Every structure is written in structure tokens, then in C-alpha cells.
Amino acid sequence: MIEFWLIPVVMMLVIVGLFPPIAGYIVLVERKVLADMQVRLGPMRVGPHGLLQPLADALKLLLKEDIIPRDSDKGIFYVAPILSMFTAFVAFGVVPFSEQFRIADVNVGLLVISALGSVGILGIVLGGWSSNSHYPLLGALRSSAQLVSYELAMGLGLVCGVMSAGTLSMVQIVRNQQTQGVWYVFDNWGAMAPAFLIFFIAAVAETNRSPFDLPEAESELVAGFHTEYSGFRWALYMLAEYGNIFVVSAVSVTLFWGGWLRPFPSVGWLEVPLNYGVPFLLFAGPGIASIVLLAPKLKYAPHRYGMLVVGGALTLVGAILLIPAVNAVAAAPFWFLLKVAFFLYVMIWFRGTFPRYRYDQLMDIGWKVLIPLGLGTIALNAVVGMI
Amino acid sequence: MLEGYLPLFVFLVLCIAFPLAALLVGKALRPSVFAPAKLESYECGIEAVGGARGRYSVRFYLVAILFVIFDVETVFLFPWAVRYKQLGWFGVAEALVFLGILVVGYVWAYKKGALEWV
Amino acid sequence: MNPAAFYPTATDYLRFLPELILTIGGVLLLVLEALTGDNKDKSSLGYLAIAVVLGAMFAVPVALANPGTSFNGMIVSDGFAAFFRMVTLLVGLFTLLCSTSYLSREKANTGEFYLLVLFSLAGQGIMAASNELIMVFLGLEIASISSYVLAGFLRDDKRGSEAALKYFLLGSFATAFLLYGISWIYGVTGATNLVAIRESLAAGTSGNSMAVAAAALMLIGLAFKVSAAPFQAWAPDVYQGAPAPVSGFLSAGPKAAAFAIFLRIFQTSFESFSSRYEPVLWILALATMLVGNFSALWQSNVKRMLAYSSIAHAGYVLVAVTTNSNVGTAAAMFYLAAYALMNFGAFAAVTHLAGRGESHVTIDDLKGLASKQPVVAGLLTVCLLSLTGVPLTAGFFGKFYIFKAAIDNHLYWLSALGLLNSAIAAYYYLRILAAMYMHEPKTTDHPEPVPGGIQLTMWFSAAGILTLGVFPGLVLDYANRFATFVK
Q1: B54 CA: distance to closest CA in chain C (Å)
Q2: Alpha-carbon gap, residue A330 to A325, rounded angstroms
Q3: Chain C neighbours among B 84-113 (CB < 8 Å)?
């Protein structure tokens, strides 16, 4: 009994307690990466290289006045962001970070995630509707039409993955990839790759990310559905958005990219170099680099010491991961999170690269391109998978 | 069987409790200064004309209807996809017939302009 | 479980052939409709649809030649199913024959009409042949949803849109009742197969009072569909507002199919507590006859009058259902076939006489028809006489067998009240006849020629009425032979 509850409860507390700050740091990474793409520096003031910026943001949001517009439907206005946030968070409940690290392994995990995604749309629609103001309403309408359109394509992509997996349990999907010895994105002689692409494009649109961020197109709609929201309620929407980004990345990784499995899971001799080498390099490398290269350049002493501490901590984590006992447990979640981080980066990359679509283009892509392609991909995979 | 869902439900309660708690804590911390202008609907600084509960384009309804049709289709495909390997070629053929009928409907909607947005 | 056990055999498909043909034909028409341009003439699609219905009619004997259940007991091909398939297909054929000219008259150049008729027919066929509550529901929905669209097919017509909306809302409501009843039955017996439900209820292992409640829910749903009082309120508005050929279609085809599942469900699954629902059916039958006939008396609009008369006729069929016997079932089958002929014949005449925009649909507009268009008037007279129940017409024998079955089963009061009702009904049918033969025409303008399809329909139904009026055995023997269900 205790064993059954121990890891789930710890995971619950970790996710609820740690994801908000992690979301803050994803925002920081996003700002830094975008700044780098645009040859700027990004946040630099709060903490060394802006590393404490998320904390400042969080504090600001918590202390900001909570304004409820006079004309709004108060009850719905209160509930909508909570609805959005908790659906995004509950989806974490079926995401397996590794064989052990998961909250629940239900036999229809994938359906739970899509169902929660559908309910999450309600949070946006209700938020925009209850504001009783022009821009939020338009944002909510656009967003609901967009989300339902792309949900179809996403579902079609998922069906392809499920055909290979033969189960809807998130854990079992990864186990099946292990036994079949293939990440499903490479399954069916490459016929699955388009399925993944369709899924991922639709997922980007589902999370209202650029270039599909029309619900909050600031040049036309001020801030879209959350125009009237301020303070912590607004923060809940942001948390929901980043939660959703994380979850769709996690689904991509689980269904198509082998979940917590390391690359080439069936090749035994790669175990040591991959499971020990990569984490060490990834943590200790930047750690040492920030100690040696970044810290000396910082003129402001607290920043310099802060940078040294961060570098030291990163190096230490890299070293700890070399301990076999730790590595045996941590390698799987490490690979999972690394892959998720890659897809998070891809989404930021999109934002820095693609201009926003016009609304009719957006609907055209959803209905006239992705859905027929999705249907075709299912037919193709159904036939190729049988051969 | 349903035991597996138990942690999920506990987590669900926790996830609802967390924003409520955070909002309560924030309520104790944040200032609240009343000013009537703050409570106006946002309209880029000018006074809003009319409420937001007007009519909007019928296309949104159309998208909603199309969504229902195709979403049900996807949901119907899931059980087949789970048992895809056991059902074999017969299942593939059935699924293709199912998809084929839907594609006909899709083509019809396309030709009738239901998918056009302008 | 081995999935191969579920693979259908070739015979399974043969038993389901009429619906397969209709579905494939409908899908084909959908593609053709989409591919032909918006400005092209779509009446050729109508002819294609007629060919599809004829093909399905030829497939009915094929299905009958392979009796038995298919798709793991979901569909049953027996004489009863074949009979109702034939009736609904005949109604569909009439509808298609009447509608090509109607649609071009109303400037509705859209081919979807034809394929909706085909899909609705497929649904009705599934209803007739379903051996399973899920299939009942599926067939009912396919038939109904197509009918909702057909009722509002003339989009710019306010009355049609109102009719469609009312039909849709009340129809969905009725379906919800039916579905709720189905889920209760599944909860009680753990089965959706009609025979399995019967066995489970007969074994007495499950809660019978819950099964009675489920039967009551399903009874309400089906009573809606056959427009039995007190659930008839939608019918007059819908039949009046819908395009005339569609009104004819709705009042004959889906109603026959709904009666088919009514008979099959209540005589197969719920026979063990027939004594419980017989009084309810008794009251339903009487109320339906009374409401239909007395309301029809006051109508000046012919379509609305025919709508009320169709409610009354549903009441007569319910008398046959109340008997809960094979004789009664056979009488109901005969009556529904005869009713399809005479009612559609009348609606075909109305379709033609109503004129553009259906502006001439009152009894006054029929004045002096006999001198202006003697042929149409004569054929309409045959249909109306048959609806009244005059000897030598199909309607007479229909009523005769129903009341005979009722008396055989000791329903004396119901038969007596039913006979009184048909006497009342004579009044409003004769009113039309009087207007046609005993009045001078209101206007002297030259009548429009009767389109070929409508002519064919009217001649065929009149011939059918008279043939059955002289040789009722042609249909009745068949009905008697197949009025028993596989148990």
C-alpha cells in the first residue's frame, strides 16, 4: 500500500510545487533564446544573466491587484482560469517520466490526455465569454474554432501511433517500443514520420503557440481571450499554456520518440557512453563553462558569485549522475526530460522563425491540409503496418 | 482495475486546490484600491460601445458541426487502432471502408464550400 | 476472443443487400452531386436514385431467399423484414417519382434531396430488419436525421424550416426516450439482442418491474415516432410545413418502419408482460383515433387534414398492435401497405395541385376539380374512398382485418369505438369529394399538365388500391405467413 502511494504522492507534490517555477524558467529560456535569435541579450538585470527573473515575475504577479471588470459574469470569470490550469496539470498525472516515476498508469492514458485537452478549451472559451468585452470574445471564438479544428488532426496523428502501439496506456506504449526495438516515429519504414509531423504541427496549434497564436494576436486583439485578466488569474492561464506545451511534448516523446528509453535501447554496449557520458557532459559542460567563461566577465560581485554557485551546482549534478546507483534510477527520466526539452526548444524556435498565419490560412491548413493528410496517413500506415 | 485511477483523482483534487490556495494567499498579499475606471471593459482607452454579446459569424457554428462529425470519426478509430494488429487485414479493410465514407462526406463539404473561411 | 468469429460471411451480406445497395447508391450520388457544378440540372440524379431504389427492391427477394440472422444476430432477414423493406422502398420510389418535377417547380436545384431519401430508406430498411436494440436505434437515427433535413429541404421556406426544427427537436426527444429505455433494458438483462432479452425476461432472473419501466420508456419513444396521441403534436405542423412529397414520404415510410420495430420489439422481447402494456396500448389506440379524426374535421388545409388523418390511421394500426396476436400483426402489415398506397396517392395529388410555392392547398382550391382535371380528380377519389374505408378498396379490407382481429381477441369496445371513428372520418374525406364534384371551379385558368412521375405514382397507387380491394389475399396471405417472429 505504502509502496503503491509513495512515488505517486511524491510526484504529485513535485509537479504541483515545482512546475510553476519551472514554467517560469521555460519563459526565461524562451526570452533568452528569442533574444539570441534577434541578436539581443534578453533579461540581464535580475540575478546573473537574468537567472532570477522568474522569481521577480512570480512575486509581481502574486502582488498585483486582481481586477474583475464590472460587466463580466463574475462566477465564470473566476472559474475559467482555474479550469484551464487544472486540466493542463491533471494531464501530467498520466505522463510517465520513467517506468517508476509516474502518478498513475491508467489503461486509457492517451484518451485521458486528449479528453483533458478538450475540457481545457472550455477554460479559454469561458474566460473570453465571461469577460463580456469585445476583444476577449473574439479571441475566445477564434481560439475555440482553432482548437477544435486542430484537435481533429491531432487525433488522426495519435491514431497512427496507437496502431503501432496497440495500447492506450502511456507506460505500455513505451514498453512496447522497447520490446519492438523501434521508436514509433521510425516505424513502418518511415510511414510514421508524417503522422508525427501532423501530430506535432497540430499540437503547436493546440497550445496556441506561434505561428498559430491567433487567439492572442496582440496586434489585432490586444491580448485575446485574457485581455481582461490580470494578476494571478492571468498567471494561471500562462501556467496552463506552459503546462500544455510540456504535456504535448511529453505525448510526442512517449508515443513517437521512445519515452524514457535512451537512443538505440537494444544496443547493449552503448549503455555506458550514453547513460553516463551524455548527462555528465550536458550538466558539467555548461557548469564548467559558466565558471570559467561567464563568471569572470561579470563586473557586479553578487552576480559573479551567483554565477559561480550556479556553475558549481550544475557540475555537481553532472558528477552525482555518474554514481551508478543514482544513474540507474535517473537515466530514464533524464532521457525523457531531455527529449521533452528538445521539443520545447523546437516550439520556441518556431516562434522565433515563423510569422503568424492569417486566420483563413490557419483554418485552411487545419481543414484542407492536415485532415486529408491525416486520413491518408492512417490509410497508409494501416496498409504498410500489415505487410 | 479502477485502482489505477485513484492517484489520478487525488491529483485532480490537488490540482484544483492549488490555484484556489494560491489565489487565497494572493488575496491576503495584494492591494485593492477601488476606482470605477478600473472596472470598465477594456477598449484601448475609450469608452466601450455596446456589450460584447452581439452576433458573430455563422462560420463558427459550421466549424463546430464539422468538428463533431470528424471528432466522432476519430474516436471511432481509436478502438480499432488499439486492436489493429489482432484484427488483421479484415480490420484494415473495414477501417478503410469507414474512412472512405467519411472522405466522401469530406469531399462533399469541401465542394459545397463548407471549409472556406472567407 | 478470436476476432475471426466476427468476420461476416457472404450470406451475411446477402441478407443485408437492400440496405447495402441503398447506402452505396447514396454515397455514389453524394459524390456525383458534389462533382456536378452548382448550375447544372440535377434531375438526372433523381433518375439514378430511382434506379438505386429499384435495385434495392430486387435485392429484397434475394435477402428473403437467405433467411436467418447475420452479423452475429444484429440483422435478421425474414418475411416480416422483407415485407416492410418492400413497403418503405415503394414509398421511397413514389417520393422520388413525385419529387423531380416538384423540385424543379420550386426551383430547388439540389441533388441532395434524392440521396437523403436513399439514406432514409436505408435507415428504414435497417429498422425493418433489425434484431437488436442497437441496430433499432441506429436505423431509427439514420432514417430520422435524413427526414429532418428533408422536412426543411426548401431552405427559404419559413414553414418548411419551422417544420424541420419542430420535427428535429421532438424527434430527438423521442429518440432520447427510446435510448434511455434501451439502456435500462441492457441494465436489466445484459443483452440488446431481442431474442436474448426475451429469454432473460422469461427466465425471470432479472427485475421485471425495471423491465416494465424500460418497456414504457421505449413505448413512449416509439409512440412519438408513429405519432400516437398524446405524442402526436408534432405531426400536423411537420406534415403541413414540409414539402408535399416529403409529407407523403414521412407519413407512410418512416411510420411503417417504426411500426415494424414496434411490433417486433413488443412481440419478441416483451411478450412475457403483454398483459401489463395492453391497457396502455388500448388507451393509446383510442386516443390516437379520436384526436386524429376529431382534429381533422375542422381543417381547411388539405395537407394538415391529411396529417391528422395519418394520426387517425396510426390509431387503427395501434388497435391491431393491441391485439398482440399473429392475426393482429398480419392485419397491421396489410393496413400499413394499403395505407402507404392510398396516403401517398393522395399526397401525390396534393403535390401536383398545390401549385408553385404550395399556394393552393385548401379545400376551397379543390372546388370544381372534377370538371377541370377529371383524371386527377378520379384518382384522388379512389385514394380518398380507400382512406374512408369504402368496400372494393384496400382501405376497407385493412380496417376489416384490423377490427376482425380485435374482435377475435375480445377487444369489443375498442372495435366498436374504432368503427365509430371511421364513420366520423368519412365526413372529412367526403368534404373533399363534395368540393371536387359538387362545386364550380373558382377560376377558369387552364390547368397545368400533370408531370409524368406524379401521374405514374397516382395510377400505380389507384391500381394497387383497387387490386387489393378485390384480391386482398395477394398481400394478406403473405402477411399471415410471416406475421410470426423468430423467438
Answers
A1: 23
A2: 9
A3: 86-88, 90-91, 101, 104-105, 107-108, 110-112
Measured between CB atoms, does B59 come within 8 Å of chain C? no
Say if CB A184 and CB A177 are below 8 A apart: yes
Q: Which chain B residue's Cα is nearest to A109? A: B5
Q: Is the residue at C277 inside a domain?
A: yes
Q: The whole model's pTM is what?
A: 0.85
In whole angstroms, give the CA distance from residue C229 to residue C313: 12
CATH of the domain at B20: 1.20.58.1610
Positive or negative, the Cα torsion across B98, B101, B102, B103? positive
Domain containing C299 equals 13-482
Would C3 be classed as within a structural domain?
A: no
Residue A326's SS3 state is helix
User: How far is C327 from C405, CA to CA, in rounded Å?
Assistant: 6
- One-letter identity of residue A242: Y
Residue length of chain A: 387
Return contacts of A371-374, CB within 8 angstroms, 24+ apart.
Answer: A371/A152, A371/A153, A371/A156, A371/B70, A371/B106, A372/B103, A372/B106, A373/A153, A373/A194, A373/A198, A374/A152, A374/A153, A374/A156, A374/A157, A374/A195, A374/A198
The one-character DSSP state at C132 is B
Distances (CA, A) of A130 to A223, A229, A384: 15, 11, 49
**CB B107 to CB C31 under 8 A?**
yes
Going by pLDDT thresholds of 50, 70 and 90, the confidence category of residue A217 is low
Q: How far is CA A293 from the centre of its chain?
A: 31
The predicted-structure confidence for A9-64, as pLDDT tens digits, reads as follows 888 888 888 888 888 888 898 889 989 888 888 888 888 888 888 888 888 888 88
Integer-rounded Cα Rg, in Å, for chain C is 21
C-beta of residue A128 within 8 angstroms of C-beta of residue A140: yes
Is the pLDDT confidence value at C21 over 80?
yes
Min Cα distance B24 → chain C (Å) is 44
Domains held by chain B: number: 1
In a domain, B96, yes or no: yes
Q: What is the ipTM of this complex?
A: 0.87
The mean of the pLDDT values for chain C is 88
List, in sequence order, every residue forming a beta bridge with C130; answer none if it has no partner. C75
Query: Would residue C26 count as lying in a domain?
Result: yes
Taking contacts as CB-CB distances below 8 angstroms, the residues of chain A near B16 are 82, 86
Please classify residue C447 by burial: count the beta carbons closer than 10 Å to its beta carbon, then call 0-12 exposed, 13-18 middle and 19+ buried. middle
For residue C49, what pLDDT band results from cuts at 50, 70 and 90? very high
Name the phi and psi angles at C75, rounded to 5.
-120, 140
Task: Name the least confident of A149-153, B40-44, C374-378, C397-401.
Answer: B40-44
Q: Per the CB < 8 Å rule, is C31 touching B104?
A: yes
User: What is residue C393's three-state secondary structure?
Assistant: coil
Q: Does residue B117 sit within a domain?
A: no
DSSP code of C37?
Answer: -
How far C115 CA sits from the closest chain B CA (Å)?
12
Name chain B's partners: 3 or more CB pairs within 8 A. A, C
**Quick count: other Cβ atoms within 10 Å of Cβ C410?**
10
Q: Which residue of A has its CA nearest to B113?
A: A368
Residue B118 lies in a domain: no
> Which residues on chain C are in Cβ contact (under 8 Å) with B104?
27, 30-31
Q: Residue B33 is nearest to which of A65, A148, A379, comparing CB atoms?
A: A65
Chains that touch A (3 or more CB pairs under 8 A): B
C28, closest residue in chain B (CA to CA):
B104
B67 touches chain C (CB under 8 A): no
Task: State the residue range of the domain holding B97.
Answer: 2-48+55-111
For A104, A115, B9, the CA distances from B12, given in Å and listed in that order, are 11, 14, 5
